[in-house]
Amino acid sequence: MSSVLSYSCRLLAKACTKDKNQLPKTFSSIITLQEDLQLTIESKIDNCKSWDKMAKNESLFLQKSYLKAIEACPPKDMQFAYLTFYKNNQPCGIAYAQIFKFSTYESLKHHRSFNDETAKFLRLKKWAARQIEFHSIVCGNVLMTGEYGYSFDNQLIKKEEQFNIVNKGLETLRHNLRQQNINAPVILYKDYFDNNRQKIENTDFGEFQIQPNMIIELDENWKKFEDYLGAMSSKYRVRAKRAFKKAKEIEKRELNLAEIKTHQTTIYDLYQDVVKSAGFNGITLSQNYFTNLKTHLEDKFKVIGYFKKNELIGFYTVFLEKERNSIESHFLGINHTENRHCQLYLNMLYDMIRMGIYHQVKHIYLARTALEIKSSVGAKPHDMYFYMQHKNPVFNALTKQTFDWFNPQEEWTQRKPFK
């Protein structure tokens, strides 16, 4: 078994040789994909003249305001590409791509499977992880959980044609990067819900199921937080009140921009503590990431701080999308000692629900990880899928085995807190 894995890893390492070239700071292209279909590729969202029109009815995460915020403060080794498609010179679709250098070892080095000396093939796994480092093109947003990759006018481009058209655009982007000595062997489409899975029978993409998106659907009859508690069974209502009691000495408040700047270092340190305990992290945020989002998005982005004796011991962040009637949870940070004493994380989940009821939204998107505790407050799992292709056919054939080997698993039991 170990010899098979070793041989596979040598193939993977050869296919994913480390690319030390730096991404270009700017690029711009106009391409004809077929007789009636044209494409523009830009590295700056401000250069996309038709973007607002095509994203008008889409989520915040395809709007220029959000994209400019991320562009102004990108994660480490990340660049962006904005694709606009034209049919007979009329804009018909847009696609958002993130280009970044992925390191398997850096992403998994804190996971328990990488620090368990009794784990089988541990040394081989660490060696293989250090070899697998490459630039990838992601259609979608690695900072979020959800379908935020592309949007088309369905009257101009049929829904079943859209994936293939976007892929032509991303192949063109990959070719353009290669001309600038940037090798991006992997193309990945992330976060499709079950009802939007793609037909890939005639492509060389593989489909992978990943951790579900945990989503709370708020009952329209919950006009105040007490209505939510009243809908719970006695067991879970008692559990909630116990958590509130443990956090009674904690001061909770929304932080304005000045306060976020004041506590920026502590916020980042608390975030890093969570990253190290999460097991998998494919990106590295900059220290002023949260400050930058607040600056650009104002009331659409909220940072809630938790203080004990005037010391910041935790925070969570959310995007408030009133147009979409939803709240989307984002990164958070926690002092793990205080979490054990005060049940900080559980209180944060309840406070997100409290916020959702106050704003009368329909859904709260809690993303992945911590699946069981999220289900204990009423979130339900929604299966999600991504699609990946490696241009090297040998590595492409091994992607399933590689993903399963490196992918951290979480065993959990779904809780049902309501009567």
Offer a concise description of the structure:
This protein has helices at residues 2-15, 51-55, 64-72, 104-108, 122-131, 159-179, 225-230, 234-246, 257-262, 264-278, 289-297, 336-342, 344-358, 371-375, 393-406; strands at 28-34, 37-42, 78-87, 90-103, 133-139, 150-152, 186-193, 206-217, 251-255, 301-308, 311-321, 326-334, 363-365, 380-390. By secondary structure, the chain is of the alpha+beta class.
Structure explained in plain terms:
The protein has 419 residues and is α+β, with helices and mostly antiparallel strands. The chain is 37% helix and 27% strand. The chain has 15 helices and 14 strands. Strands 1, 2, 3, 4, 5, 6, 7, 8, 9, 10, 11, 12, 13 and 14 form a 14-stranded mixed β-sheet that branches. A hairpin with a 2-residue loop joins β10 and β11. α3 runs antiparallel to α11. The radius of gyration is 22 Å and the shape is globular.
Strand-helix topology:
Layout: H1 2-15, E1 28-34, E2 37-42, H2 51-55, H3 64-72, E3 78-87, E4 90-103, H4 104-108, H5 122-131, E5 133-139, E6 150-152, H6 159-179, E7 186-193, E8 206-217, H7 225-230, H8 234-246, E9 251-255, H9 257-262, H10 264-278, H11 289-297, E10 301-308, E11 311-321, E12 326-334, H12 336-342, H13 344-358, E13 363-365, H14 371-375, E14 380-390, H15 393-406
Parallel strand pairs: 5-7, 12-13
Antiparallel strand pairs: 1-2, 2-3, 3-4, 4-5, 4-6, 7-14, 8-13, 8-14, 9-10, 10-11, 11-12
Helix pairs in contact: 3-11
